[in-house]
Design brief:
This protein is of the alpha+beta class and 228 residues long. It has 4 helices and 14 strands. The strands form 5 sheets. Strands 2-3-4-5 form a 4-stranded antiparallel beta sheet, with no helix packed on it.
Length: 228
């Protein structure tokens, strides 16, 4: 390597996607313009909608950590799903009330005011329909390119050949840009063996995609400029 080679030192401090949740740049659920989520509040730069959700930060933490405890669906703009859980939030599997077989997970649906209080699931084994009281929770998957606080579509996202590249905010774009554009990647984590960077999908780390991804990330930074 020449002296011009850029080096990226992974300290391991950004250990997961949850390291970039200080703010989210999303599409306003009302008008589609850029909106900023900070803490408990979503503010649209277009229609000036302002929505307060007191549990948004806790919801983001729970959803990024893959557990559901306490995550409500009020002011949640992503999809929702009915879950079966104990009072403390421990998830249970849906099982057929006639033959005891595991039932297929109920499908997700858009959030709405008239979500049913009860659902019926039909057993593929014996055909029996079992009724359950529905507890509605946010359905979240980071691959959906939505934010985990309000469930809105991320503003900074681009569909590339191998998948969707997305970032939560400018700092996230910058961190990813430094990683992707480096000639040398060194892992110097003091704690544990994984970080957000080591866990990235292979196509984001692949040398052949570097130019495309760098270009997209530069575009994100440019696009986010107006919204700080
Ligand atoms: Zn708006
Ligand atoms: Zn059954």
């Amino acid at each position: 390597m020449t002296g011009n080679a850029t080096r990226f030192e992974d300290s391991g401090k950004a250990w997961a996607l949850s390291s970039f949740t200080a703010e989210f740049l999303v599409r306003c659920p009302k008008c589609g313009a850029a909106a900023l989520i900070r803490g408990t509040r979503l503010t649209c730069t277009g229609c000036h909608t302002s929505i307060e959700a007191k549990d948004a930060p806790q919801r983001a933490t729970a959803l990024l950590g893959n557990f559901q405890t306490g995550a409500g669906v009020k002011n949640w703009f992503g999809k929702v799903k009915p879950v079966l859980e104990l009072k403390d939030g421990t998830p249970l599997r849906y099982t057929c009330k006639s033959c005891g077989k595991d039932l297929a997970a109920p499908s997700t649906r858009p959030n709405a005011a008239n979500l049913p209080r009860d659902i019926t699931l039909t057993c593929e084994g014996c055909g029996h329909g079992s009724g359950f009281a529905a507890v509605w929770r946010p359905a979240y998957c980071s691959h959906d390119a939505r934010d985990p606080a309000f469930g809105c579509e991320l503003y900074l996202q681009k569909t590339l050949r191998d998948g969707t590249l997305f970032v939560f905010n400018t700092a996230h774009a910058e961190a990813l840009l430094q990683f992707v554009s480096a000639d040398l990647r060194e892992f110097k984590a003091e704690h544990g063996w994984h970080s957000y960077f080591t866990n990235l999908p292979a196509w984001i780390k692949a040398a052949k995609n570097r130019d495309t991804i760098v270009k997209a990330l530069e575009g994100f930074k440019q696009g986010a400029k107006a919204y700080g």
